[in-house]
Design brief:
Layout: H1 3-72, E1 78-90, E2 95-110, E3 122-138, E4 144-145, H2 159-173, H3 178-181, H4 184-197, E5 205-210, E6 213-218, E7 231-236, E8 246-251, H5 255-323, H6 326-329, H7 332-364, E9 372-375, H8 376-393, E10 397-402, E11 408-411, H9 413-429, E12 436-444, E13 447-454, H10 461-466, H11 488-498, E14 502-508, E15 512-520
Parallel strand pairs: 10-12
Antiparallel strand pairs: 1-2, 2-3, 3-4, 5-6, 5-8, 7-8, 9-11, 12-13, 13-15, 14-15
Helix pairs in contact: 1-2, 1-4, 1-5, 5-7, 7-11, 8-9, 9-11
């Protein structure tokens, strides 16, 4: 995959992910806003219904009160009776059905002193509807028998009379204190009923205010806050001019929690799915980048391995061709030198193959590592013998500073020696001048710490983060300027982990590197 196509793919995937996140956030925000708007609407409808119920019940109360007074004073000032009579006779059974409906209209002039208010007397009109039904059957003696009768009082008025009476009652009620007009328990029951009807099951407090001032009609914990978005109001007892004196206020302390709880389930599910998408996206991008890096690293690995195998093969071929020369064939000293050259180059190739196979076995967990009690200082001395000739040949040195009083560890002699040799070989390869290596040991609590310090070219911060990755080698412009295939330090890390130890690197470009190994002591 080309770099340009890779970047386009990343940008496209990122835009899609951002779009999904934006849509999810927008949906959650809209859902919350819709639930809040629905809550506002339901509360407003409840308050309007409560206001209408209070006014309707008050008018009904006055009508009944004046009707009872009218009944108690005797004859009305004026009365009118209108009646409709319907009859039907069945010729077969000789039964007669009679239906009678009469409307009695009675006018009374009543004083409003019955309510302890100073209002002039009012004209009160009472309507009574009387209905009568009967079936007349001929008896044996020629008489008839009445089977049904009923009487019903109605309160429905003609519109002009209804309006006049309603306004009169409103004028009378204005003179009465609000705590006598509205019962707190009844109001609370009415509020609760209206809220439950609209599925608003949450705690509330209420109060009735008169032109911004509190009245005696209020719940115990009501606190007035004019700026609170959780307090709702509705006018009470509106007159014919649409003006009013009283307001009913209701506050909800847990409104936000109630609204949020209605969308929290779907919101959490949405956020959970979005998080999965983000993780999947991150993993996919990481894998793409890693695959691209592996592709580049493998290319470098093949180039380095080809180069490292090509040189010894060419050297071996040249040595074999030279050995065919009769003059050299008879010279034993020269023959021995060529044979040693072939053996050394063969060992070099064999070591490269062993490193590759060793890493492969580690990944498959086929490598059988048996550990025993060993002295770390002895292992270090043994590892130094493998590289000291190379160091001396380049005019360098390896110095040991064994300050650890205890160095017994549980380790595999062969593999841990290889670990130390790999680190020392790395220090030698990345020392442009004569290799100068110092090895320190010390005891830290129940551990022994080994520090292998060189004065080579060092590593960049980017290289420090990836130095133990398989196939990784820091580029210096020419990938063959330092021989290797990027497997040595990967092997080191895997082996240290297998020995339940820790390894760190401290390095600065141009000032060398220090490898720090921490292992647990055994008694």
């Amino acid at each position: 995959m080309s770099k340009k196509l890779f970047i386009i793919l990343i940008v496209f995937m990122s835009l899609c992910l951002l779009g999904i996140i934006f849509v999810q956030v927008y949906w959650i925000k809209n859902s919350f806003q819709n639930k809040e708007d629905q809550f506002h609407y339901n509360v407003r409808q409840s308050l309007i219904a409560i206001s209408k119920d209070l006014q309707s019940k008050e008018l009904e109360y006055y009508y009944r009160l004046y009707a009872e007074v009218a009944d108690s004073i005797g004859q009305p000032d004026r009365s009118t009776f209108r009646e409709i009579v319907y009859t039907n006779t069945d010729n077969v059974t000789n039964e007669t059905f009679i239906y009678s409906s009469g409307l009695l209209e009675e006018d009374f002039k009543l004083s409003s002193n019955i309510l302890d208010v100073n209002v002039d007397s009012i004209n009160f009109r009472k309507f009574t509807n009387r209905k009568f039904t009967a079936k007349l059957r001929p008896g044996l003696d020629g008489t008839s028998m009445n089977t049904e009768a009923s009487e019903l009082t109605i309160k429905t008025l003609e519109e002009p009379s209804q309006f006049q009476l309603r306004e009169t009652f409103k004028d009378i009620a204005k003179q009465i204190p609000i705590h006598k007009r509205v019962d707190i328990e009844e109001l609370n029951s009415l509020i609760k009923h209206q809220l439950e009807t609209r599925d608003l099951n949450l705690d509330y407090e209420f109060a009735i205010f008169s032109r911004g001032l509190s009245t005696k009609v209020a719940s115990e914990d009501f606190v007035f806050d004019p700026n609170s978005p959780d307090t709702y109001s509705v006018p009470l007892f509106i007159d014919e001019n649409r003006s009013y004196k009283y307001e009913l206020l209701i506050s909800f302390d847990k409104k936000q929690k109630y609204v949020f709880s209605s969308v929290v389930g779907m919101g959490i599910l949405t956020l959970f799915l979005t998080a999965i998408i983000i993780l999947a996206y991150y993993s996919a991008i990481q894998q793409l980048i890693r695959q691209r890096q592996i592709s580049e690293i493998k290319t470098d690995f093949i180039n380095n391995m080809t180069h490292e195998f090509k040189t010894p093969i060419a050297t071996i071929n040249l040595a074999l061709d030279a050995m065919k020369n009769p003059m050299i064939y008879d010279n034993k000293e020269t023959m021995q030198r060529y044979l040693k050259m072939i053996r050394d180059e063969n060992k070099r190739m064999h070591a490269q193959v062993e490193n590759v196979l060793r890493i492969s076995k580690l990944e498959k967990r086929d490598l059988n590592i048996k550990k025993e009690r060993l002295k770390l200082h002895d292992l270090i001395e043994d590892a130094i013998t493998h590289v000291e000739l190379i160091v001396e040949d380049r005019g360098g040195y390896i110095k040991t500073h064994f300050d650890a009083q205890k160095s017994s560890i549980l380790a595999n002699e062969s593999h841990f020696t290889n670990v130390l040799v790999n680190i020392l070989d790395n220090a030698i390869k990345y020392s442009p001048e004569a290799p100068k290596i110092d090895i320190f040991t010390e005891n830290v609590k129940n551990n022994v710490v080994v520090k292998i310090q060189d004065q080579g070219s060092g590593m960049s911060k980017a290289a420090l983060k990836r130095v133990f990755e398989k196939f990784y080698r820091e580029h210096t412009g020419n990938i063959h300027n330092v021989k290797g295939h990027g497997l040595g330090l990967s092997y080191v890390k895997r082996m240290i982990d297998d020995h339940q130890g820790q390894i760190f690197v401290e390095s600065e470009k141009g000032k060398g590197s220090t490898f720090i190994i921490k292992l647990q002591l055994i008694s």
